[in-house]
Amino acid sequence: MKIVMYTSHSCPYCVSAERLLTSRGIKNIDKIFVDNSSEALEEMINLTGRRTVPQIFINDNHVGGFDDLMAFDKQGNLEGLINNS
């Protein structure tokens, strides 16, 4: 399973998203820090249409931000995706 998370160094929602993912057994998260790179920020905005972090992709599918990830998890979709990978 491939997880990409656009993030920043001072984002509490990013920390919470990472905690949720690791609590579900995800060991590798490819973090792209938008506060280090204006190119990364532009890339994130172009891909998602959003300017806030985190923005999370699972297997190249945009899940959204932390609230979206929580809803995805509560619906059982995250566990199902993990188990099928």
Describe the structure.
The protein has 85 residues and is α+β, with helices and mostly antiparallel strands. The protein has a single domain, classed as Glutaredoxin, CATH 3.40.30. It has helices at 12-23, 38-48, 66-74, 77-83, and strands at residues 3-7, 30-33, 55-58, 61-64. Strand 3 and strand 4 (61-64) form a beta hairpin. The longest helix has 12 residues, at 12-23.
Features:
85 residues; 4-stranded mixed beta sheet; 4 helices; single chain; alpha+beta; Glutaredoxin
The fraction of residues assigned to DSSP E strands is 15-25%
Rg (CA only): 12 Å
Kindly name the structural category: alpha+beta
CATH class: Alpha Beta
Pattern of helices and strands: EHEHEEHH
- Mean of residue pLDDT values: 94
Q: In the CATH scheme, what's the topology name?
A: Glutaredoxin
Helix content range? 40-55%
Number of individual domains:
1
Number of strands: 4
CATH A-level architecture: 3-Layer(aba) Sandwich
Q: What general form does the structure show?
A: globular
Distance between the termini: 6 Å
Short description:
With 85 residues, this protein is α+β, with helices and mostly antiparallel strands. Helix content is 46%, strand content 20%. The chain is globular.
